[in-house]
Amino acid sequence: MAQPSLAKIRERLKAIADRNSGTSTNKNFGDGAIYPHWDIPEGTTARIRFLPDGNEKNDFFWVERSMINLTFAGIKGQIDSKPVTVQVPCMEMYKETCPILAEVRGWFKDPSLEDMGRKYWKKKSYLFQGFVRENPMKDDQSPDNPIRRLTISPQIFNIIHSSLLDPDLENIPTDYENGLDFSILKTSKGQYADYSTSKWSRKETALTAEEERAIDQYGLTDLSSFLPKKPTEVEIAVIKDMFEASVDGQAYDPDKWSNYFRPRGISAATTTSLSPTAVYTPTNSAVSVEKTEHVDTVAPAVAQAATASGNQKAEDILAMIRSRQKTS
Questions:
Q1: How far apart are CA 192 and CA 177, in angstroms?
Q2: pLDDT averaged per 10 residues in sequence order, the chain, 328 residues
Q3: Would you give the end-to-end CA distance of the chain in angstroms?
Q4: Which of 7, 69, 114, 258 has the fewest CB atoms lying closer than 10 Å?
Q5: pLDDT at 18
Q6: CA–CA separation, 32 vs 141, rounded Å?
């Protein structure tokens, strides 16, 4: 298949950087194709050969995924329930206005609300596909299709991104004949995993005959098909309702929301008090917090800030937000 040129990728990356300074199918992530690189032992390396996106309209060999964490005080109706978190898709992922970020952006104008704003800000990750050429995990169960999917954190992605802008890089790393492997090196910094020493190989290599046969047999996936499906109007209303309840310090209400978005261990209700005529049973990764490289997608400073903000009474935070809205 025709690959986007390195020049085209650089042109798009520059356009995105300039802009920042100035329909998906429903599939499940739990099919074994995801390579959990965050589980490699500390001090080891996983060597990956990235492949192009199966969607030829995508100039990049990745897609961006943006999710928002909504934390609740517990489960309504359950005694001694611990706090739970539900992930919901950020509408900016679909090039539309996100109702949560539309509210949260204003919080950063008030220093007393900045920590709360970080808590509800979107968490980015990036979906890639490729061959795992060197795997330090002895117990990893590789599926029949050796083309694995990878959920890459911002820390690793920034290394990939900056290297693509290097003028000394002559060929796109996904080139079948003159591509480059990417080594994910896992170390630690304090109590957090650290991947800052990850890097591209200096030597170009061609795909092996076996790898080329795998591409011919299984094909390349349209990575956007593994993004959470775009929420409907009803689901957007649910997201707004859940967001307000989360900020207010309420418990998660299965009767109202479990047919749409729910934490692990909670089954869908048979009815919903929000919209009994539009029942949606979620089956993709948007409905719960999946096991991802979460310690890397949230920087330590942000995680600490979120914890500190959680100690502040919810009613005080809401009072400040509402006061700011009235005076703005």
A1: 37
A2: 64 61 39 88 97 94 96 91 94 95 94 94 97 93 91 95 88 95 95 94 96 97 94 96 96 94 80 35 36 38 39 50 52
A3: 53
A4: 7
A5: 56
A6: 8
CB-based contact 90:122 (threshold 8 Å): yes
The alpha carbon of 158 is separated from its chain's Cα centroid by a whole number of angstroms, namely 14
Nearest to 121 by CA among 324, 326, 301: 301
CATH number, domain 6-327: 3.90.198.10
Q: Are strands 45-50 and 199-200 parallel, antiparallel or unpaired?
A: unpaired
Tokens of 198: 């990850």
Give residue for tokens 């047999």.
217
Task: Kindly give, in sequence order, each residue whose CB lies less than 8 Å from that of residue 314, ignoring residues fewer than 6 positions away.
Answer: 247, 248, 249
Residue 141 main-chain phi, psi, to 5 deg: -95, 100
How many CB atoms are located within 10 Å of the residue 79 CB? Answer: 6
- Which residues, 6+ apart, have CB-to-CB distance to 214 below 8 Å? 131, 145, 146, 147
Indicate the domain borders of the chain.
Answer: 6-327
